[in-house]
Specification:
Order of helices and strands: EEEHHEEEHEHEHEHEEEHEEEEEEE
Helix content: 10-25%
Largest sheet: 10 strands, mixed
Number of strands: 19
CATH class of the largest domain: Alpha Beta
Oligomer: single chain
Length: 368
């Protein structure tokens, strides 16, 4: 099930139905409660926007919270919803992913990603043809694992400093070849570019060769050096392979196991990723939910001076009303179809309704 909002970041926009926010969420995946953070861009309105979804996966020992503001600054203007997923501990207690490596966790991360996509389509009207996934290091390895079976749902991926596991390298035979961007340093000692691989991992040339064979390589490529304006000892080559399904390698010459960030580096990894993603839509995305079962509510009158009436197509479990600062001004657990707000100050509030299937519906309410 999903938790109620725990963090409210920005002000409510008067003309929007949902405000810009970062929230901590969770979802039940086969009995495991999985954590993630989502960011709804400024002025987001699910009734008239069907935005792309960007799934972000952290590295070994990392966490979703530390990444949870990385794409938000782009999302507000580029108009997409980033979600930051939390991995589970492996046998060494490190936050990890079940991606076919020796340091994998044992939970079902493919189902986590798949069901989260379905949930975001239902609850936030995400465009099913524009679902993307990106990861760093262990998260990149998991991204490759995801498109083994979820290539019917993911339109493109961007993998930073993490190659295919040997099991993915062997089993990768997608029904829908996926556009891929791979970013890697030639001096990477953690996930080697070439030379001697880490156990259970492929090298960058092996990963690229597998992708070339799947994505329809036509026997040619172009190399363009990206601008080199920062004295960081690193140069960037963008290698575009002539494939029927796009494939590119950003080769970070002389770089170790790093994620590019300005102003230390010439560019930022998040910018490279979104610049790549925005080109692609899925030709035939699978949606694993029944749109007729989409949970909806109506709230009336709105604006309101005394009684708010709530009508839902599913039983209500909990009602919460927030003020502009994110404070709870009203909360009721159980079935209820109206609340009295005559004692509250005039202004704009957020009504959160938890339905019987643990879906949250958010509505703006104006009290006058």
């Amino acid at each position: 099930m999903k938790n109620i909002i725990t963090t409210i970041i920005l002000l409510l926009f008067i003309k929007g139905t949902i405000f810009s926010q970062l929230t901590q969420e969770d979802i039940n995946i086969n009995g495991d409660i999985r954590l993630y953070y989502q960011y709804l861009p400024s002025g987001f309105n699910a009734t008239n926007e069907s935005l792309p979804l960007v799934i972000v996966l952290h590295g070994l020992g990392g966490d979703a919270l530390s990444l949870s503001n990385s794409f938000n600054w782009i999302a507000d203007t580029a108009r997409f919803i980033p979600v930051y997923l939390q991995g589970e501990p492996n046998f060494q207690g490190q936050n990890s992913w079940n991606n076919g490596t020796l340091l994998s966790s044992t939970v079902d991360d493919v189902s986590f990603i798949s069901q989260l996509i379905d949930s975001m389509i239902v609850n936030y009207n995400v465009n099913p043809a524009r679902v993307y996934c990106t990861g760093i290091s262990m998260g990149a390895i998991m991204t490759y694992r995801a498109i083994e079976t979820l290539n019917d749902k993911i339109a493109a991926v961007s993998c930073h400093i993490g190659t295919m596991s040997l099991s993915t390298l062997q089993n990768y035979n997608p029904i829908y070849p996926v556009p891929v961007q791979h970013v890697h340093g030639t001096n990477d000692a953690i996930v080697p570019y070439d030379g001697t691989p880490m156990p259970s991992l492929s090298l960058v040339p092996e990963t690229i060769n597998k992708l070339k064979s799947v994505n329809g390589f036509q026997g040619d490529s172009t190399i363009v050096q990206l601008p080199d304006n920062v004295n960081d000892g690193i140069t960037l080559d963008k290698i575009t392979y002539n494939c029927t399904t796009p494939l590119e390698l950003i080769r970070m010459n002389n770089a170790g196991h790093i994620y590019l960030l300005q102003p230390t580096n010439d560019t930022t990894g998040m910018f490279l990723t979104w610049h790549f993603f925005r080109q692609f839509t899925h030709s035939n995305p699978t949606v694993s939910i029944d749109e007729n079962q989409k949970q909806t509510i109506s709230v009336y009158p709105n604006p309101v001076s005394k009684l708010i009436h709530i009508k839902a197509n599913s039983a209500i479990k909990e009602i919460t009303l927030y003020d502009l600062k994110g404070g709870v001004v009203y909360k009721y657990r159980g079935q209820k179809d109206k609340i009295n707000v005559s004692h509250l100050e005039k202004g704009v509030y957020l009504l959160s309704v938890l339905l019987n299937n643990d879906k949250h519906i958010l509505e703006k309410v104006i009290i006058e």
